[in-house]
Amino acid sequence: MTEHIVRITGNVAHPVTMDPGVWIFDERRVHLDTVFSAPEEAKVISDAEKMAKAWNRQRSGTNPQSNQNIVHLDKRDLTEHSLGIHLAPFLQNASPLDDASIVTVRTSQNERVELDMDTAFSAILAFSHEGKALKEDGPVHLYFADGSNRDAPIRYVTELIVS
Question: Any idea what the CATH number is for the domain that residue 122 is in?
Answer without folding.
Answer: 3.90.420.10
